[in-house]
Amino acid sequence: MNPMLDYCFTSAPQQTITHTGIKKLLWIIKKTLQQKGDPDLIPCAYGLCDRQVSPDKAYTAELIYMHGTMMRKKKRKYCSEICAEKDQMAHEL
Fold first, then answer.
1. pTM tops 0.70
2. What are the CA-CA distances from residue 50 to residues 10, 36, 41, 78 (Å)?
């Protein structure tokens, strides 16, 4: 019998990969590097934009939208003026 084909006959602890020693350290490093973004960067407020920008370079715009029957204004930070305009157009009725 081929040992590569008899996975259904081996016990569950033998089928799983345990992270011990150097393997665990490499796994932790890999997971840390896979995390998205730098903690100093803020995401663009426009929902369809995935860019991140530093707070000092962020474009701040006032979003005007309807909350029920009342008009609301909210200051939000975007990566560019284009994203601010697109977000405003998305909230217009």
1. no
2. 44, 11, 12, 11
